[in-house]
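User: Please work through this fold.
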Amino acid sequence: MPDSLTALDQQLLLWFNGSDSLFLDHFVMLLTNGLTWVPLYLALFYLVVKNNEKMSQIFLIISCALCCYLLSGGINDAIIKPFVARWRPTEDPIFKYAVSVVAGYRGGSDYGFFSSHSANTMAIAVFFSLLVRNRLLNTTLVLWAILNGWTRLYLGVHYPSDVLSGWLWGAMVGTLAYFAFYKFYYKISPKINYISSQYTKTGYSTIDIDVVMLVLMTILTVAVMASLSVF
C-alpha cells in the first residue's frame, strides 16, 4: 500500500483500538470467540430444518452455508494471507508497540490481510438474508457481521482495510453461494410464492425467525452479564 494509505489505516485503527474499560475488554473477547456464536448457528440450522420438508433441500442449504465458510475464510487463510503477507498490526515489527493488546491476544497468525472473521460472518449474513428475506433478520445479521469486524479493530489484530476487504469478499461469497443455491433448489422443489404475514415470500415462518432473534439477543445478554461479572 502507498505510505499515505498505510498511515491512514494505522491512524484509523488506533482510533478504534482498545479502551480503558475492563468491561469492554472482556465483552469484546467473548464476542470475537467463535464458540460464542455456536447457539446462533444452531438456531439458523433449526430455521432451515423447520422450514424445509425434504432432506435434499436441507442438505443443499447447509452445503451452501458451509461453502460460505470455505470460500470466505478458508481460501483467505490458506492462500491470500500467505500470498499478500501483510503483518497484523499486533505482529508488525515496528507498529505493534503502538497497539493496545487485550489479555495478550494478538490474533491467530502473523498475517492479517484480510480479516477472516469479517469475511465469514458477512458471507453467512448475506446468504441467509437472501435465503430468508425478512427485513428484521437481514438487518440484524448484517449488524452482527459489522459487530464482529469492529471487535477485530478493538483488539488491534486487523487494520480497517483488512476488515473492509473481508466484508466485501464475504458479501460477494454469500451472494454467489445464494445464486448456486437458487440454481439447484427449484430443480428439487416447486416454486411457490408465499403471500402471508406469517411467512416470508421464500416460505420461512416468522415465528421461527423470532426464535433466531431470541437466541441472538440471549447471546448478547449473557455476554454483557458475563462481562459485568469482572467487577
